[in-house]
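>> Question from a student workshop board

For tomorrow's exercise we were told to take the sequence and the ligand below, predict the bound structure, and bring the output to class. My setup keeps failing. Could a helper post the expected result so I can at least see what it should look like? The ligand is KG4.
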Amino acid sequence: MIILGLESSCDDCSAAVVEETVEGPLLRSLVRESQDAIHGPFGGVVPELAAREHLLQVRSVIAGALAQAGLGLQDLDRIAVTRGPGLVGSLLATFSTSKALAWRHGIPWVGVHHLLGHLHAARFAAPDLAFPALVLLVSGGHTHLYLAQDWTSLHLLQKTRDDAAGEAFDKTARMLNLGYPGGPLVDACAQAAVRAGDPFTPPKFRDGKASWSFSGLKTGVKLRVERNPRLAEAGASDPEVQGLCRSLQEAIAAWLLKPVPELAREHGARSLVISGGVACNSRLRAEAAAMATRTGLRLAIPEPRLCTDNGAMIAAAGAKLEPASEPWSQNADADLKWGA
Ligand code: KG4
Ligand code: ZN
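>> Workshop helper replied:
Here is what the output should look like for this input. Compare the format with yours to find the bug.
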């Protein structure tokens, strides 16, 4: 089965062609247009600008993915597109285009939950993943830990009470004037550090409920910069800035992985999947590998270009879902807050 996967829920416009085989999904092409130059000066995604840019990008991204795969629309067995959650104007660019293409060319169509897409990114590297699996989805908008019994069912175990882990990276980069998007820049800065700065104190929850909180990190970085204003201007080559980035990254990786061993025991999990943009993080990847060795969990982290938002993960998820019977009807609409 040949699937065209489309994703534009935030600030990446992406299309991919995936071939679903008995051994698992094969990536035939992947195209992604970045909007970093547009949002960079604002230090974050501006929804209206993102929507307009997606409208300009969507046709060339689809044409590019088909050309790279050496295929035409007539070769597609299915079109899969992100249905939600996400920014409305952004989502609608690929969502509406995909419905029109499906209708015009009679191609089966399926709407995909964005987070299910992130899970399916792991199928490219681990098509025979052992279930049950713990699934840690960490991005700029989500920090959620699920239990999955198979590739299509996600049961939420815990999530952040406030900011997503990606936000802590992005806002730190902003306060240190490192550039945009923040995650990869903080990561590079942390890797250059000779030693870590002062550690960040983990939050305590009085109600005892399992969860995360990352907004305190933002305040922690802000206080350090207020105490030492030089940090805001010193740049990525400064040892103190590097040390701060390293302690931030160490804290985030440790906090994210902390609940995993106990929950894995409790639910008899055999694998750990980590996906979403923050799964690109070098420290998180290294710590997760060490934890997997210690606990006997099989680890599946997609290659970095499949961790951040992309059309391939949506195609891979769409391959496992039932196509909608009437995608052009009013019932098949984007769902901005779909089961977040
Ligand atoms: O999954 P994604 O592409 O988009 C959302 O669905 O949010 O994730 C984007 C997030 C951003 O916050 C970005 O800074 C973060 O992933 N990110 C990283 C790294 N690469 C991307 N965070 C930490 N380290 C990285 N290497
Ligand atoms: Zn995402």
